[in-house]
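User: Can you predict the 3D structure for this chain?
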Amino acid sequence: MRRLTRLNAEKKYLLEYSDLQEAINRLARFENLCEELVEESKSLPAELERLKGEGKEKTVSYRELMAKKLLNKSVLNALKKHGIDVFLNEAPPEKLVEEVEKSGA
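Assistant: Here is the predicted structure, written as structure tokens:
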């Protein structure tokens, strides 16, 4: 993957290339991935519980869903370790747009 950012001496990330649209598109794809992970992490326990209630804990479907749940949890934990807590929604999109416009990006 080609990096679009670099860390400067003040420990702030800067856009490495002048292609702002490419950076926005990549960010959007990343956000879509995070949303999918969160939605799956919310829906998988109910599906696992349903299969368990039917006595299907030893089926391939149950085991695949359990593996998916553990993998998603691992990815979400790795994101959180790097300061990306996808369960937080602190600033509404309008606020983020205002901040970008004020920064001149």
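Residues 5-86 form one domain. Helices lie at 20-53, 60-81, 93-103.
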